[in-house]
Amino acid sequence: MSHAPHPVAHTATQVFADHRELLFSIVYNMLGSVCDTEDVLQETWLAWAARNRAPAAERIDNPRAYLVRIAVNAALAHRAAVSRRRETYVGPWLPEPLVGPLAGRPAPEDAADAAVRAEAVSMALLVVLETLTPLERGVFVLHEVFGYPHTEIAEILGRSPSAIRQLAHRAREHVHARRPRYEPDPQVRQQVTERFLAAALGGDLDALLQILAPDVTLWGDGGGKGAGGLRPLQGRDKVARLLAAVAPHAGRGLDIAYRSVNGAPSALLLVGDAPYAVLVLDLTPDGDQVCGIYAVANPDKLSHVE
After folding, report:
1. How would DSSP label each residue in the chain?
2. What is the pLDDT of residues 148-188, one digit of tens each?
3. For the chain: N or C, fewer Cβ within 10 A?
């Protein structure tokens, strides 16, 4: 005897699956954590499934808007837990990297995974978004990244359109003051990443001093479990000397695989098949020098990297 899925349940599952990638992208950009994003998506699915099972429930005319509203508000509720964890975190905190194949290379068979194709917000921008309030960040992500109009965001968040416009203005000013609007050419980024790694792993101090911008900042996120400092290190001389002294030894036996990380050509460092660290560089507007080095080595943040 066959047990075919109930038509309503099957439709609800399909609708959620159709929107899962969008929901993942929005929530990840609000939280910077893959694990927390998956938790929010699970909550969203449970609320959506329950709503569809309710016998007297009215028909939902716009499932996408309904799902986005549930997910965004669940993400805002999660921010408190994320912030509490941050307070006891050892060393600098960086977002969990989203690692995928480089553009133009064949995608892995499981590339249907939403994380691989999530709307790309650079690691550098995500770090700046951490300095916004949860509401400002939610508004910025919905408006600037996904193009939602202020009126629709007002409905999602249960605020007035004028309050949303104010939040959007404040968030945009804050972000643009810290993060100029430019994106280096992917090919340039790839070449600079290769040059940087050759200089660092080779302990070439002169080459490092050339490639690093005067105000470069190094963020090493080990979370007390992997390689990383207790605080970000700033200034070309300090960063170059540290890398020249430490990188050749730390990099011995590591393999380098070039991948797309949060939409930008970056490096995945491996011990055998296991990820050791993800390295993302931020470049100056002319693309000639490195102004930000983001190294994620906390194994908890690399557990989803393949």
Report:
1. ---PPPHHHHHHHHHHHHHHHHHHHHHHHHH--HHHHHHHHHHHHHHHHHHHH-TTPPP-S-HHHHHHHHHHHHHHHHHHHHHHHHHT-SS---PPP-EEPPTTSPPPTTTTSHHHHS----HHHHHHHTTS-HHHHHHHIIIIIT---HHHHHHHHT--HHHHHHHHHHHHHHHHHHS-S----HHHHHHHHHHHHHHHHTT-HHHHHHHEEEEEEEEEE-TTTSS--SS-EESHHHHHHHHHHHHHHHTTT-EEEEEEETTEEEEEEEETTEEEEEEEEEE-TTSSSEEEEEEE--GGGGTT--
2. 999 999 999 999 999 999 999 999 999 998 877 777 788 99
3. N
